[in-house]
Amino acid sequence: MQDLQLLQPSIGNTFGALFIGATLAAFLWGISNIQTFLYFQTHRGTGITFFKIILFWILDALHLVFIVHCIHYYLVTNHARMSALTNIVWSFKLQVICYALITKSVQAMYVHRLWIVSKGRSRALPIMMCIIVALALGVDIVLVWVLYRCHQFSDLIRVEWAAYAALSTVTVVDILIASSMWYLLATSRTGFSRTDSFVNKLIAYTVNTGCITSIGSVATIVTCAAMPNNFIFLGVAFLVAKLYVGSFLALLNVRYYLQGNANNTDFVNTHRTRQFLHRPEPHIRMSQVEELQASEENICKHDDEADFTRPVQIDVPQPPPIAITVEISSFSSA
Description:
- The two termini are about 60 Å apart.
- α2 runs antiparallel to α3 and α6 packs antiparallel against α7.
- It contains eleven helices and no strands.
- The chain has about 325 residues and is mainly α.
């Protein structure tokens, strides 16, 4: 009991930090579920892309399952057992593998988008980014290997270099991908205000998603360097994988958000335009009026001789209808 009282002050910034990180990770997983549902509702018939999204969702769910099992193992199953709290449970190692798979899968999808955007231009930039992502995967494999050899949390201090290398590589790759996408989109401007406005919004979404994941990785590096003797950096690391999945799904749904805004804007503009539309009044030529008057006089003169019941028809030319066609460009996400 005395040992438990000595350990109690450090529970808050160790396993308590893991618990808070797991709670926030579950919250972000819920947001990813909403993004996934929205994608399925607005992108029907996209073929193999559905399987990619399902794969991301499965990896994200497994990552959360391993995190929850890790917290349950330390705080419920082995509560107050000092020998168990110092050991690294198997689910902790597996969640690192899921983290590596998620980050590299998302980065590979970003590189695929670079390949699509660079269609008709040089492929040097997407090929270079593909090589960089492959090299970064090698760094993650090293991290998983050294972590597999660790059995206690005290062993993590000896492999800090692997964690720093993996997180730094992920951050650099995110910045390079966001910069490459910004360059390709910026050079795709056509000079038309409507298209350029759409491209500018895509640039903003791309840069923001890259910044979010980079901020999460940098926060993990900073907390690990500043507080290596607690688990706050691990709680922050739980969130990085969720940020990757959520930001990528949000970028896939950007077409839905932008197209919805464009539809609302076009409806307002069309409604305002129709208020000022002028439909010209029909004009009747003087000869037609004179013929009408002559016909009425003839009817009056020969009222006793004939029963004339057929009305006089006058062809009045109608102005052609005014049609307004609005086309909304969409950005195809792969």
